[in-house]
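Input record (one chain):
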Amino acid sequence: MQLFQIRYRNSQGTLMRILNAVSRRGLELTSVHSEYTGQDHAVTMLLHVSPKQMGQLYREWHSIVDVINVHSSPAQHEAPVWAAHPPASVAEQSARAAMA
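The corresponding structure, as predicted from the sequence alone:
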């Protein structure tokens, strides 16, 4: 498992082009997290890739004009734990129960 960290300028379609490079290769996105980091944005992805696929991804991501930096490292854990949000139906049911 590799953890990829990509910094990019948030122009129209940049994040979609980054994710499309992964999707085109049929790779499973174990986890994806995107956030604003001051002057630019960053996306962190956990992927299971071969060395050949890693080279292809690096080459494609670096060819995207608005990508600033691409960095990867071996994953320390299987998947990062993000704060989970309950489904909307669960939130609505608890709100109705509170009103009753």
